[in-house]
Amino acid sequence: MTIFALSSGAGRAGVAVIRISGPASLSALEQLTGSGVFRERQARLCTLIDPRTGIHLDQALVLYFRGPRSFTGEDVAELHVHGGRAVINAVLDALESITNLRPAEPGEFTRRAFLNGKLDLTAIEGLADLVAAETEAQRRQAARVAEGGLRHLYEQWRSAIVRTQALMETAIDFSEDDVPDDLETRVDGAIDELVQAITSHLSGADRGERLRDGFHVVILGRPNVGKSSLLNWLARRDAAIVSDQAGTTRDVVEVHLDLDGYPVIVADTAGLRRSADRVEREGVDRARRRAADADLKIVVLDSTDQSGEAELWEHLDPATIAVVNKIDQVQPAPSHMRIAETVLPVSVRTGAGMDALMDALTSRVRTALDQGAELVPIRMRHRSKLHECLDHLHRAKSAPTAETRAEDLRLAARALGAIVGTVDVEDILDVIFADFCIGK
Ligand code: GDP
After folding, report:
1. 59, pLDDT greater than 90
2. Which of 119-133, 288-302, 325-339, 424-438 is predicted with the least confidence, judged by mean pLDDT?
3. Measured in angstroms, how far is the CA atom of residue 6 from the centroid of ligand 1?
4. pTM metric for this prediction
5. What is the pLDDT of residue 170?
6. Which ligand 1 atom is the nearest neighbour of the CA of 230?
7. Residue 214 region, left (φ>0) first, then alpha (ψ -120 to 50), else beta?
8. Which residue, among 67, 65, 77, has the nearest Cα to 116 in the 3D structure?
9. For the chain, what is the mean pLDDT?
10. Pocket residues for ligand 1 (CB within 6 Å)?
């Protein structure tokens, strides 16, 4: 069956791209344009007509890709039409009237690309991330994976395991005299090398997954110290209600920031204060839970209120930046501003000290997420299969017989194969494609 869908985004735009894939692509083009000459990979300006009525639909730029040299590996056509809703609807409606054509399911183009061997599973995941990427660092990571970086790495390791497995098989198939003396040592050495490489790769998993999800920062402090003001300052927009009345931020308010290319999610929480108010208490509980999960806490204190000092000590750990706010109101600087180097004196109102705060924040984020040129696992799925592979490698190392050793190696290779999608595909396909929408 040939499928079609709008592949560009919703909303009004200059141009919209409608994609068609399958054996009837070329015939659909002929019916839509009343013309039969489409050269492969060459753009052509055509008048689209409704094949049922002959009504003129739009002027479109038409591209035709003959399979397998296309995104899906099938015959593919692209119609670059004008981006108006009515134009798109009219063209989609005309396509639906053509025999053997039907609207695509979510992710169906990419699924076909996978089934035709154009993309492996990691490339598909990279592609999904690329489409979803909001910051530069996310885009870089996604692009490397979409281009097959992870596939290349995992296939390298997989063939190294298969080679080692083949060595073991010789020990099984041939008599002891025919097997080289150093075979065991060579196999052990190869396994050790793989274990080391995979372990080091896994140590970046946290950074890879966090870069996708964002670095979570939570702002903590008593009511009225300036938490919402700080969040607003960070967001440079009115994301939280700023008010003089204590306890107005009852719920958790979040803003998403792009900090030097890294995705950061900052949450302002209800003031940490014992409260009789049920709604506010719930907010405080939520703040505590949120703080426990955060990658970084910013504890805000009020320089006009020295009583916050004890609270500061309670929170001061490596995952905390402490901020003493409202320094515009005190002369000279209060003592608790100087208790530790990690305490930053600021005034959200005047902007004093805010650059230093931004520097501290950015440097924490960069340390947590930066991966340089290294490729890291980007999905929980990768992480768990890599652990599975390591388990089998460890088992192979201590296996009692050559047969069990070879079997453990086979299972280790299989775990890597499952990441790129050469084995055990069925059960993971639906999970991966659940992230996709129609037209991809
Ligand atoms: P929250 O309850 O911790 O979220 O505190 P808010 O952000 O609502 O701020 C409480 C009050 O302190 C508001 O009136 C703010 O305008 C004021 N405020 C916040 N930052 C500063 C500052 O740096 N200097 C001064 N003087 N006032 C501030």
Report:
1. yes
2. 424-438
3. 48
4. 0.74
5. 74
6. 7
7. left
8. 67
9. 85
10. 221, 223-229, 242-244, 249, 271, 325-326, 328-329, 347-349
pLDDT in tens, 132-160: 888 888 999 999 999 999 999 999 999 89
- Whether residue 103 is preceded by a cis peptide bond, meaning omega within 30 degrees of 0, is no
Give, to the nearest 10 degrees, the angle between helix 121-132 and helix 136-146. Answer: 160
What are the helix (H) ranges across 370-401? 380-397
The residue whose two tokens read 């970046």 is: 204
Local structure of 67: helix, strand or coil? coil
Owner of token pair 């670059």: 80
CA–CA separation, 318 vs 321, rounded Å? Answer: 8
- Asked if 71 and 63 count as a contact pair (C-beta separation under 8 A), the reply is no
Provide the strand spans (E) within 104-182: none
Of the two residues 338 and 298, the one the predictor is more confident about is 298
For 257, residues 6+ apart whose C-beta sits below 8 A from its C-beta are 234, 235, 263, 264, 265, 266
Q: Which residue did the predictor score with more confidence, 352 or 438?
A: 352
Kindly state the helix (H) or strand (E) to which residue 218 belongs, with its residue range.
Answer: strand 215-220
Question: Strand 215-220 relative to strand 262-268: parallel, antiparallel, unpaired?
Answer: parallel
CA–centroid distance, 229 to ligand 1, in Å, is 6
Which are the contacts of 60, defined by CB distance < 8 A and separation ≥ 6? 45, 46, 47, 48, 79, 80, 81, 82, 91
Atom 22, ligand 1: which residue's CA is nearest? 326
Distance CA 239, CA 31 (A): 52
**Tokens 């995941």 -> residue:** 125
Pocket test for ligand 1, best of 241, 242, 249 (most atoms within 8 A of CB): 242
Question: Which residue among 224, 230, 350 is best mutated to probe the pocket of ligand 1, counting the most ligand atoms within 8 A of its Cβ?
Answer: 224
Ligand 1 nearest-atom number relative to CA 247? 2
Is the Cβ–Cβ distance between 79 and 91 less than 8 Å? yes
CA atoms within 13 A on the CB side of 228: 20
* CA 244 to ligand 1 center in whole angstroms: 7
Q: Is the pLDDT of residue 54 over 80?
A: yes
pLDDT band at 270 (very low <50, low <70, confident <90, very high): low
Give the ligand 1 atom nearest the CA of 325. Answer: 23
- The pLDDT of residue 230: 92
How remote is the CA of residue 230 from the centroid of ligand 1, in Å?
A: 8
